[in-house]
User: What shape does this take?
Amino acid sequence: MSSSAIVPHVVDTRGRPLHDIRFSVTDRCNFRCVYCMPKEVFGRDYAFMPREELLSFEEITRLAAIAATHGVEKIRLTGGEPLLRKGLPELIAMLSELRTPAGTALDLAITTNGSALARLAPALKDAGLKRVTVSLDSLDDETFQAMNDVKFPVQKILDGLDAAHAAGLGPIKINMVVKKGHNDKDIVAMARHFKDTPFTLRFIEYMDVGTTNGWQLGEVVPSAEVVARINAEMPLEEIEPNYSGETSQRWRYRDGGGEIGVISSVTQSFCHTCSRARISVDGKLYTCLFASSGHDLRALMRDGCSDDELSAAMAQIWRDRTDRYSELRSLNTQRPTTGPSTGAKRIEMSYIGG
Ligand code: SAM
Ligand code: SF4
Ligand code: SF4
Assistant: This one.
């Protein structure tokens, strides 16, 4: 029997294994992206989580270690802006010590807005970080600054990307959230810029996550349209996913200039293979990005539960999982509508981790 065959993967009610976990390490951010933390809501008076409410590095590492015993192989740190969390390299060093039951290191990555990467990339690499994903919505300063809403210039993100590449934090992915009427005019320019480079650009459909961004279906640019626009100028062909459960559909340039990805969470849901759990900044486990409540693992830890008890709780939460929000939304969105998204109270992306 191979060593990986003995890893006890826990599966949910729909047969989906728990494969990766995202930790939101801070709910704070230095950007105010209009689709994520609109200024009107996340203003000067906004009450962010007090420090003592945040999971400590020890608590995060403890949860990650237990998750690894249930089959988790990928850990991603996100937020908010994860690079704002004080001492982040220390956490990365702690996580990089963890091993799966088969003895391999975990795939450790962060998703960042890139604003501090130029400064922090070498320290992150030294601490044991494997890869970064950087969000960048446009190469046009006016458009990018209107989207981040804090006048942050494009060039500093490009400098951060270069620093991450130089430090060896690859393969590096770039996430572009496409919002109709805001940055969809930049789709082809972004593709052209990152073609024939070591960076893989991924286009994300604007999602109805949280309740503050005023999402409208009419502002979503379907991935099929993104691919068609690029294909018209730089021919593409679809390629196989890297692994089952990959959220991004892959397309490569026919001339060998690399590949792009599209993440079609609105028009083509991928709930049937979703193997991701999210742990909020205050230690609640969410089994879906669109869940309205989480399971309080921090309370268990701070009440003194043992590793075995914590492990059993985590496994049971996953076994009970039934989520498939996007699948159900996709059924609804097949009817033409431009109205706002409705539904239960939902958690903001910055708190749960994108
Ligand atoms: N601050 C970091 C960043 O921007 O990369 C990490 C956190 S952010 C919430 C994680 C990812 O979620 C980013 O790539 C961001 O563009 C994406 N995102 C945020 N709001 C979104 C929305 N409404 N629809 C689709 N993607 C969204
Ligand atoms: Fe901050 Fe990332 Fe949200 Fe933008 S997408 S506001 S950078 S957390
Ligand atoms: Fe996974 Fe929920 Fe997204 Fe479906 S809607 S892919 S279950 S996070």
Q: What stands out?
A: The longest strand covers residues 107-112. Residues 1-5, 335-343 have pLDDT under 50 and may be disordered. The two ends are 37 Å apart (CA to CA). DSSP finds eleven helices and twelve strands in the chain.
